[in-house]
Design a protein that fits this description.
3 copies of one chain form a homotrimer.
Chain A: E1 4-12, E2 19-22, H1 24-34, E3 39-45, E4 50-55, H2 59-72, H3 91-100, E5 103-109, E6 112-113, E7 120-125, E8 132-140
Chain lengths: ~140, ~140, ~140
């Protein structure tokens, strides 16, 4: 096989401060556009208060994630974060994104996303209402 | 080098609800089977209540992980999880797997797993007693 | 493109038990040294009490991370860790590294690190004062 590479960005601007967006269909479409049959697909948030993760597309579970992240890395009191001395108030978003992860690496097989039956790829936003990018880099043959 | 790709699954069915299984020898064998000398090996749980992670093969530490995950994402009270309105009672397993991670990407060098001296690859099960798959995808030359 | 592969190690010995080191310039230099134009770069801690993660190079935030990790995985009481029956006292470091992550996979585009505007690559040390290695493996064309 000849080695090939493909890159494209996805853009997001969520209306809510925190949100989860299922981006599996968009990633699947980019893999087909790339023409790569066998390889690896890297999907990563390019902003450090957002996340890419893989889990179940079940609304109750997504609400559980949101409640749990707020327990582990609470937004309040905002005086708790030294980062806020810069004028930002998104310290918690940096921590939440760390729990959920920056990136997912996914197998590409026979020109398709090679996922388990319930695996869905999510964009996790923890400091929304601004435009942010996600990198999709696919390499293979 | 010519570009090559290899995929195989590992299957697990743990007797306990939560368990850790050292799968380093199985991954090493698959790398040799692939014939790939230089590249990257992706190992990921294909189920969203299980994990692949790399840490120390020390029994006390694995017990520490288990105790700690139960503190950060407790199984009880099961009424705490909106996910359980679906009839599932594994909300905690989704959270625990998120802490431990879905995947590991490991270097392949001279036809071998290129790990540090204490790095061992583990399958982490958080909702066991059912058959689950792990993906091993190796790309390189 | 012809497929190529490159590996090199970085060595660290921090003076403090816990520390964060921005290694972005070193990774950028290795990508240029590799001659790889399009591909993926894996950076992983080879020791299981250290981490590679990507976040903001802002001192206040790094202090927030340190405080938060000590809350989620406290060093004391050391009697809390079964791992310490081996004579080690770094059980917390294994857990902290798990939160922050073992590895980052980063896109390489046109011979450069393909990062978002604030993404910086950090080495996270949680049990320092000893020499430790980081793997940099770059594959592509």
């Amino acid at each position: 096989m000849a080695f090939k590479s493909f890159r494209e960005y996805l853009w997001f601007e969520t209306e809510k401060r925190r949100d989860f967006v299922n981006i599996t269909p968009q990633i699947e479409a980019l893999i087909q556009k790339s023409g790569i049959q066998e390889g690896l697909c890297l999907v990563n948030a390019m902003h450090i208060t957002a996340s890419i993760f893989i889990n179940d597309a079940e609304d109750g579970l997504l609400q559980d994630f949101d409640r749990w992240l707020e327990e582990l890395a609470p937004h309040e009191p905002v005086t708790n974060y030294k980062h806020h001395l810069t004028g930002e108030i998104n310290g918690d978003a940096h921590l939440k994104r760390t729990i959920m992860g920056r990136e997912a690496v996914i197998a590409v097989t026979e020109g398709r996303l090679d996922l388990g039956p319930w695996e869905q790829i999510f964009y996790g936003e923890f400091d929304g209402r601004r435009r942010k990018r996600v990198m999709v880099k696919i390499i293979g043959g």
